[in-house]
Amino acid sequence: MLEYSMLYPRETVSRRCVSMDGLWKFQFDETSQGVANNWMNGLPNPIDMPVPASFNDFFTDKESREYVGDFWYETEVFVPAEWKGKEIAVRFGSATHRATVYINGVQVMYHEGGFMPFVAVMGEHVRYNEKNRISVLVNNELTATNIPVGETKVLPNGKKMAKPYFDFFNYAGLQRSVNLIATPIENIKDYTVWFELEENKAKVNYTVDSNTNKEICVALYDENGTQVATSIGKEGVLIVENPILWKVRDAYLYKIVIEIFEGDTIIDRYYDEIGIRTVEVKGTEILLNGSPVYLKGFGKHEDSDIIGRGFSYPVMKRDFELMKWIGANSFRTSHYPYSEEMYQMADREGFLIIDEVPAVGLFASIMNFLEASSGKQTAFFKRETTPQLLKTHLRAIEEMITRDKNHPCVISWSLLNEPETTDESAVPYFEKVFEFAHEIDVQKRPRTFALIMNSLPHTCKCYQFSDIISLNRYYGWYLNGGYEISEGEEKFRKEMDAWKELNLNRPFIFTEYGADTSAMERKLPSVMWSQEYQVEYLEMNHNVFDSYEFVKGEQVWNFADFQTTEGILRMNGNKKGIFTRQRQPKEAAFYFKKRWESLPENYKSHE
Ligand code: CKX
After folding, report:
1. pTM for this structure?
2. Contact 575 CB / ligand 1 (< 6 Å)
3. Do 533 and 515 form a contact (C-beta atoms < 8 A)?
């Protein structure tokens, strides 16, 4: 169990939550002398910085946008005296990639990993009825032992530079909301639900983690606010008669209310929304409530103009409206767990999520998108840094599953993206990662990882660990693009035939396929990068998918154009978006709308 509660902050009779979003003070610490110079007691020369947001794209100079190293955020927050007797803490939605938190100058917390919430308890350092100084020392360096994996290069002029082994800009900062929270000393730390469906009945099994032995009551309410089930105790079963199940694009949410009582007094109350549904893999089918589902959707990014990877309700809303318009039903949180609000909206809208841990870049190459196709080997898992990397990786899985396990939208865990799997040394690493996820997920959701181009039926040593085989394939783009596309198709079919021959009796999905496309380019007949070619490329890929019964989903790369490190293969970012970065459709969006609206939800099922 984690040292702090991952529960999303909520206000109830016993809990308080005040948003700390807004303008914070900010300063780069290029020489890492901030601690020695007492910056936790006040930044000497700060500028204003919006939270939540990545710091990078506000700046007009390159040194600041590309800055790598230590940097500080600081703000003040008033803690009312009425909160005495409660546990007061600052909850960060994330800090990328690692952070040390100081309360009134005293260090209280260190957190590694840039995409997960953590809580810094103020404890004895809190000052009531006064403003409290909150300082955060953040660092955005990429290393071999943290995820996402990369290197930090030092240029001859002494400046540090990010060298990611992955294809997205190394945005950093306080990219998600920050809240001041007050929780009773005896409190609910976590809860877990899992479901069993019977004729006209659902069993909602639950456990509650708390730091008290006082009585725990759990109740379930339907969308009209009518109580439908109750139970007493730290673990139990809520029996729901005639349940309304959570279905794909047809969500129904119950409200779970958990209370700690002492006699008639409520000590703590927490609530959340849950959906009753089961998910499993049977043969080549992905089953939701026992019914087969074909995944239609995207690999996404948290990425938009100006705010970078910062969370934005408006961007999220637009993204969901576009996904509904185009007829999608799912997405993968490539390549890191997203903001909690994204899962809440997916819960409400009935979208299916493949939740991905930030284990991207486990292939030692800055241009892995090219080199993976060429069969390059980097002996990644033979490095002496592997044991430490595994430790960080397992911790990230634990945090992700703890945070996201109760969301009905989460149907699968993606435990790595495009790792090197062609050497036996990957096998023990995979074994530990996959076993651990299975052990800690009470719902036993299917696990997967995205296979890079050179992880082929005869070269990949690790596909056996996956409950769903997820392929990232670029025939017709990185391999045999343009006029050679027919050769690409032939090679693609050859690979698929080889998978078929293995008779794995598991669902396959495509978690990536795509072609870079400039929204400005039209060309008849097509050339690569034109909108016409993107559609031709997609048609070829879909013809292949449609030929194989065991292919049970397609998530195109990418939902929208996104920012990457600059380079000769990236024209101000990756342009494989079906929508532009400003969330307007390319020609391919209309093509997808037609295809996805015509594919039945249980496409290719045996029913
Ligand atoms: N897959 C051959 C990981 C994504 C990249 C995508 C691309 C690669 C392809 C690997 O993060 O953006 O190159 O477009």
Report:
1. 0.98
2. no
3. yes
